[in-house]
Amino acid sequence: MSDGPSENVRRVLLVSANQLGDCVALLPVAAAVRKYLPDARITMLARRIGQEAARLTGCVDDFIIVPAAHSRIALGTNFLQQMGALRRERFDLAFLASGESSAAAALLFLGRVRTRIGFADCRLRRLLSIRVEAHEPELEARRNLRLLRAAGLPDALERPPCRVPEERLAEAPALLAKAGARGGRRVLIHPGSSQATRRWPAAKFAELCSRLIRTGLAQPVLVEGPAEPGLAAEIHGMSLHPLPTLPPLNGIDLLAAVMAQCDLFVGHSSGPFHLAVLLGRPTVSLWGDTDPRLWGPAWETDRHVLVRSPLPCAACEHWDPERHTVVRGPKGGAGGAQPPCERCFDAITVEAVFEAIRGQLAAHR
């Protein structure tokens, strides 16, 4: 380990206040800090859902919670409270995750963090002590590792260690049994996403589930998230067979425990998918407008099969360094805050997803 800002560090702050996937992409940094700075106390500024995922790794000691109503750190009353918390803690070193807002850079500066490491495409980059250049496109987790290098720490990309609480592991079998899931091979299917246009059609999920049951390949188990009420019931109504269905689960750790009871996870590039990757569970994921070069699995890629939209325009999202965010639009164009089209996921066939599941179940017995 070379000399750098990580010398004489006692308090470290990690900032990732966006969605669950963003937080998971920063956790390898937390694991490396824990490994190479074992005496440092690590705090993460995150949303509640990010806190729950980070707790599974045991790499973070304390948390500063961003209210769920804010997808990013923003100016306002909460900003002043967070600034006060940072000043009280007197952090020596902070890592600002890829994609974080300029307000986050201001928060670290006004919070009097001694060394503030972030990316050079941040609009308020002058408030950072060290500005890291990054190449595009690049996996978010790999991009975040450049922060480690700037601090003089090794930057090998490894899956953080994870441990699901024993009490949650004991709770999961009863939940599955109550939902009607029998023994044998199980495929946990999360059909939801934050936007309806970023979901595979419910009718195709229903056809997939019916085929899994009819062929005896595996028992599908639906799990519904809070962002898609009624979606599982819609799929259940279209299916030719009864489908075990779990309601939104109380906590990321309980969802992790359910994943541990299933042989495979199937879903979109959403929070539960990123959790499955963090846990090392085999997955089949569906990709439309989202670019897997940014958000695909960052480690153990042999455990994950990506089924991509066959449309030539997919994926239509890309990283815009001027806006310091992901935007969607015509490839090679100026982009913009365009919503995903409705054709991207519809072009993925049931046959393609079924064969991916068959292959994964055979490979990960």
Description:
With 365 residues, this protein is α/β, with parallel strands linked by helices. The chain folds into two domains: 11-150, Rossmann fold (3-Layer(aba) Sandwich), CATH 3.40.50; 166-363, 3-Layer(aba) Sandwich (Rossmann fold). 36% of the residues lie in helices and 18% in strands. It contains twelve helices and 14 strands. The strands form three sheets. A six-stranded parallel β-sheet has the order 3-2-1-4-5-6, sandwiched between helices. β2 (41-47), α2 (48-57) and β3 form a beta-alpha-beta unit. α1 (20-36) runs parallel beside α5 (140-150), α7 packs across α8 (231-238) and α9 packs across α10. The radius of gyration is 21 Å and the shape is globular. The two termini are 40 Å apart. The model is unreliable at 331-336 (pLDDT under 50).
Summarize the structure.
The chain is an alpha/beta fold and 365 residues long.
Give the distance, in angstroms, between the N- and C-terminal Cα atoms.
40 Å
Strands ordered across the widest β-sheet: 3-2-1-4-5-6
The share of residues in extended strands comes to 15-25%
The CATH H-level superfamily of the largest domain is: Glycogen Phosphorylase B
